[in-house]
Predict the 3D structure of the following.
Amino acid sequence: MKIKFFIYRYNSQKKLKPKYDEFSIPYEKGMTVLDVVAYVYKNLDSTLAFRYECRQGICGTCGVMLNKKPVLSCSTQVDPTIIKQTIEPLANFPIEKDLIVNLESTLTRYEKIKPYLMKIKKVRISKSKANQSKPFRKCIECGCCIAGAELVFTKKGCIDPMSLVKIARYVTDPRDGLKRKTAIIKSQVKGYTEKLGEALSKVCPRGIPIDEAVKLVK
Amino acid sequence: MTGCIHGANRLGGNSIAEGQVFGRRAGIMANKFSRESKIQKPNEKEINEEIKKIKRFLKNDKGIAPHSIENKLKKTMWNNVGIFKNEKTLRKAKKEVEKLIIESKKMRARTKIKERNRDLQDCLEIMNMLNTAQAVIEAGLMRKESRGAHSRTDFPETKQEWKKNIIVLKSSGKIATKIVPVVTL
């Protein structure tokens, strides 16, 4: 059985319009989206650019849009009931080449929130206290939440969901000595409605309760 | 592959702890070293050789696609140099890797594009993979005992005389091994 995939093609170095290339892929049971992309690269078009590292959903480099939904390509199996499917680079990011997006602006924003422990308090933490930050520690910074959100956060000054989860991670960590919550201005999180938070939680491939993070930070 | 603070255990996750502790120390030392030393001119010859090494994969119009070698190497290593191995499987793998090294001389990037050329990246990575495979096999053959994640079915017991580290070196294409004592604190 073959499935048709329409893969987004673009090269930011050459001033050509983006296009979709059609590839016919022999379907195998258990096939992931990354398998499809790798099949194209190996057998059909060696110029296809895409990112992946670990193949096991832990490194966060292989995010793509599968049928307009952000997924980690390595840990998403292809649905054989859909005969025509699209694979695109993550939405809401500038595109560098084919399925590779430019992360620079996102990472610059990310750096600003100081995504590391600051003014470390040497305290003894009980298991239950340590577990408070556990759901937010699962973030692998794949950018799927940014790609899956409505455009609210791209408004100037608004915190993106990836940074928001990171803030929640340190707000719930008793060792962190930075006043992260008070540093946030209301306008930075204004766009995060309860509904958006819930939608983002569904998008996250790591199952992080982003709605909880929103409540915590707000 | 093994050694250092984790001893013979080298399963997933160890590298994080080592990278965090020793990576930090290395960073601090590099900072200190760079402050105390003068800027040196890079060796032009070495740079040119490296560029040549990279470009050679772009030259040929005919040859083998990198992933065909990668697939063969992975299969060989998986079947013969997994956690459980013995003299026979290791020797077999050694032969096959040597064959693949010869085959890799014909390896080429199928596309010449400059931006994000994955084929070229694969070529370079596979050269490193071949080197690593050789080192793993060589050390595995040498260590006639079982210890940690290294299990030789033909030598199942841990031996006191092998409380040592094996260092594998490669200079001018030849593999050499060195046995060094374990550092005790």
Summary: Residues 7 and 85 of chain B are 19 Å apart (CA to CA). The first helix of chain B runs from residue 14 to 36. The beta strands of chain B are 84-85, 151-152, 164-171, 174-181. Chain B has a mean pLDDT of 91.
